[in-house]
Design a protein that fits this description.
By secondary structure, the protein is α/β, with parallel strands linked by helices. The protein folds into 2 domains: 234 residues, Spore Coat Polysaccharide Biosynthesis Protein SpsA, Chain A; 117 residues, Hexapeptide repeat proteins (UDP N-Acetylglucosamine Acyltransferase, domain 1, 3 Solenoid), CATH 2.160.10.10. It is 20% helix and 31% strand. The protein is built from 8 helices and 31 strands. A 7-stranded mixed sheet has the order 5-4-1-6-11-8-12, with helices on both faces.
Amino acid sequence: MKGLILSGGKGTRLYPLTYTRAKQLIPVANKPVLVRVIEAIREAGVREVGIVVGPTAAEIQDALGDGSEWDVALSYIHQASPDGLAHAVKISQEFLDDDPFVMFLGDNVIEGGISSLIRDFADKQWNSQIVLKEVENPSEYGVAKMRSDGSIEQLIEKPKSPPSNLALVGIYMFDHHIFKAVNDIKPSARGEYEITDAIQWLIDQGYMVFPHIHRGWWIDTGKPTDMLEANSYVLEEITPCLHATAAIDSDSSVDSRVTLQAGAQIVNSIIRGPTIIGRDTLIENSYIGPFTSIYNGCQIRDCEIERSIILENSRVTNIDSTLRDSLIGRNASVKRSGSKPSGIKMNLGDHSTLWV
């Protein structure tokens, strides 16, 4: 069994954060989304993983290396242009060989991992298994039409009259027959080789395609609101921990749901979890509320912050209104000047300075 992670997108829906960073490397609860995907695949027992990369290849390779840090062997597969998910499978054939594999979109965050999915596929004689999730708005997704035996009859992209509320969530299992499909289908109207067309090819040729219905939460972290939602879910799941080198002074209050990473300092502040404070980050004269992730090397002074993500080496100082529901990029500076708005909400790009 091998793993294939698709990580070639530009992340335009997360601009301005992704002007200067691969979207899959933006952290959720202080861990890049792509690392969470790698760990989910490893925990399912898969050690050989290929990553399909595009314009942000150098940054991703620099961040992940050979994968040994996570006890996997990583191979990088370059996709010259964004020609679709089925095209990504096609160009990965040499790496995958004839082995069965799990394919995972590199910006997805899912509850509970994929071990049960791997077991299901290994125990059956199916040719493909795709993860489906019940959604409230199926007309906005690719949707599955089911047969009475539980197999999939048809996949329909964004149907006006959905045959079910079961949407594809971007996790797939395939055996080697998928290569027949990706080499036979034609580009769609938008010029891409669609994985839904390849799966439909398998169905139409009589191959067995079955679903795995995911009952937990799942988020495609493509938009700022999705990142914040995923961050909240993951913070609720992690086991809080205070690193031995973290420091909390006697004038501070830190509750039991807070994680402090190495070298974090809390001075005259209140921290309420679930929250994570990164390595060598200073929180001084501030209130940090639930569902907040502050990454490494930040300085937060004289502020109130709730349900936000602040990336590394940023400075937020002297904000007397509550900063909430915000994403702040790397090396950014947020300071108070002049007027006092009652609230602040922003998506602030890397290397920015904002006076409010």
